[in-house]
Amino acid sequence: MEIDINLQVCLRWLYEQGVTFVVKSFNKERLKENLGIFDWELTEGDYEKIERIPQKKMMLKEEFVSAKGPFKSVEELWDGEL
């Protein structure tokens, strides 16, 4: 069975961070791979590599407003408080 290492590392990282996540598959082999994340732990070296991954933490206002959604404009979304 060939395992997608990147996916396994991502799932294991989520688990070790205490994040609740849901994976979906009807493929028996993929289900086994997903459950395989409980058989090992990330090393300190793994965490160091993960910390060096560039992150995008910016959200554009357009992602929160929509003519079809509850907030039609940024003004409707923003109440002025942090």
TrEMBL record:
<dbReference type="InterPro" id="IPR036812">
    <property type="entry name" value="NAD(P)_OxRdtase_dom_sf"/>
</dbReference>
<dbReference type="InterPro" id="IPR018170">
    <property type="entry name" value="Aldo/ket_reductase_CS"/>
</dbReference>
<feature type="domain" description="NADP-dependent oxidoreductase">
    <location>
        <begin position="8"/>
        <end position="53"/>
    </location>
</feature>
<dbReference type="InterPro" id="IPR023210">
    <property type="entry name" value="NADP_OxRdtase_dom"/>
</dbReference>
<protein>
    <recommendedName>
        <fullName>NADP-dependent oxidoreductase domain-containing protein</fullName>
    </recommendedName>
</protein>
<dbReference type="Pfam" id="PF00248">
    <property type="entry name" value="Aldo_ket_red"/>
</dbReference>
<dbReference type="GO" id="GO:0016491">
    <property type="term" value="F:oxidoreductase activity"/>
</dbReference>
